[in-house]
Amino acid sequence: MDIRKALFLCLLFTGLLSCTQSSENSANENNLIIREQGSFAVGGTVKENPGTFNTITRGPEGQTYHGDHAYVFYQIPADARQYPLVMWHGFGQFSKTWETTPDGREGFQTLFLRRRFPVYVIDQPRRGNAGRSMAEGTFTPTPDEAFWFNTFRVGEWPVFFPGVQFSKDPEALNQYFRQMVPDIGPIDIAVNVDAVSALFDKIGEGILVTHSHSGGMGWLTAVENDNIKAIVSYEPGSGFLFPEGEVPAPIENSAGALVATGIPMEDFMKLTKIPIIIYYGDFIPETPDPNPGTDGWRARLEMARLWRDAVNKHGGDVTVVHLPEIGIKGNTHFPFSDLNNVKIAGLMSEWLNEKGLDK
Amino acid sequence: MDIRKALFLCLLFTGLLSCTQSSENSANENNLIIREQGSFAVGGTVKENPGTFNTITRGPEGQTYHGDHAYVFYQIPADARQYPLVMWHGFGQFSKTWETTPDGREGFQTLFLRRRFPVYVIDQPRRGNAGRSMAEGTFTPTPDEAFWFNTFRVGEWPVFFPGVQFSKDPEALNQYFRQMVPDIGPIDIAVNVDAVSALFDKIGEGILVTHSHSGGMGWLTAVENDNIKAIVSYEPGSGFLFPEGEVPAPIENSAGALVATGIPMEDFMKLTKIPIIIYYGDFIPETPDPNPGTDGWRARLEMARLWRDAVNKHGGDVTVVHLPEIGIKGNTHFPFSDLNNVKIAGLMSEWLNEKGLDK
């Protein structure tokens, strides 16, 4: 690091107390050095009522409405690496997924800033800070957290899985449940893909990091936009894309059948042009299990392996890492915010390095 | 700054190229030096369905629901000043209010980080990233942007006010309209005040910065929580609190009557214990005007002055600054993100300094 180099030289040549003071304060190596940060909306559509707006009566005539954009918060560190990381949340989640962990530690947003990557976190259209939806919606607060506790494989409600990488402090679970937000109107895959593609049009080449529901949308976005140079996908849930005619049979599981999608070969081939890595955590049964919370993931992991084989057969570079198989135990559906998330970040860093994506 | 001091000494004693390289990169004085950043939910309530959750059938029984918290994103700079700034958005807005301006420059979030204040930006309960509401809601996308263009005093739709401090680049207006989000369920003042008060319980003493609708909620929060050491309020819109028996008559205006609120004297007196400054921008008519977009602000400015007089009569320290009166022209309802927002930030800095709040 340049600061450390400067301070080393400063100490070497001067030995002054002020150097060490500086090192302990603003030049502390634990500080984040941010060159630029901010937020913006990207993508979306506009509708306009016919007629002319009347200043006094303020009726609907002639008024416009902008919606269905994504909201993006970004930070660019000093001495930034070439490719930014674009982090896209999963179902029911928003950018918080990548921010502070439920137990209050740094999430991938800040961990990867420390690793000198520009980081963009998204709220997809109709979600969180991108709530200005083009579609009507209704919302009813419905107790559903035991469902999510099980589906996110924290445990079997209300009991934590043994060895799970999740804090037993009740405040962690409080934060975890509060990091969900509703959809405003229906989820529209095409709207989401268009907005994230617009983001890559704006920022240029980068690396897409997806989670769960954004996994499938991420493949579609990479088909649409050549600026996506690689994908890191944590526990993609659905929407695996196969060439038409090579779509595998649905995989039955106790949460329902997991169905793959067929797309034209020409589109599919775009997924063979970029390196892709997929990670799955622990507590996924090896054989059919009556608990749909875990059994759904058995099907998804199996489908991910079929997909890997299909892409690689056509010349692609897809890796599936089932974390327990490499000795990393206890991860939930959110490996990037689990207690061992620094180790998980390390795996991602190593892979990006192997692929020459961290220059 | 310590880094600059270290580099100065480094240059002085060594004259090495590496010092100047460092200065241009990570030690660049334009960089933000962040000691810590993150996000969390604060406040809120929990409900729980009776019964026992069934892992297989996953019905409603025994499930919980956490909602009505605020969402907070915070950054603490190196060498931080004592009091953090807590920035609370207005009606229809979220934390974006304080982030990048519609025309792409730094907003108050980053400007005040540069001035070494810890900065907390809020999404109030049922808004934006705090969308997990305890109340039912429906949403219909309704073209309303001419209404907001006028009410926020950017101009008289579609014409900008002459000399308005707002970019004429169409992309600025695009970003401006997209920085709105709907409420999920009704706005509940008590829920909002409780959540922001819980934030001050968590972080300790600090300064509350409000805008428009959060102005009135800010007074209520200061009545509830002694950790609020000062309030900076941009264009407070409603909810001015007077002692019962001293409530002024409603102020008629072409947007409707502006009604003040009476509270017990004991509560009111808490507002006399902290310094408070209020700013209003330009384009506010001096006499009744048929345009409700601007005339509502005539009433609010008048009420703010009555309120200042009431608080100060009881020993308080409230200042109302109507920006055009001190020669600062062209500001909209969003002075902190207008084209001259660095000057507006300067006024706030000076006031905090005068009051000894920037140590």
Automatic annotation (TrEMBL), chains A, B:
<keyword id="KW-0378">Hydrolase</keyword>
<dbReference type="GO" id="GO:0016787">
    <property type="term" value="F:hydrolase activity"/>
</dbReference>
<dbReference type="InterPro" id="IPR029058">
    <property type="entry name" value="AB_hydrolase_fold"/>
</dbReference>
<keyword id="KW-0732">Signal</keyword>
<dbReference type="InterPro" id="IPR050228">
    <property type="entry name" value="Carboxylesterase_BioH"/>
</dbReference>
<protein>
    <submittedName>
        <fullName>Alpha/beta hydrolase</fullName>
    </submittedName>
</protein>
<feature type="signal peptide">
    <location>
        <begin position="1"/>
        <end position="27"/>
    </location>
</feature>
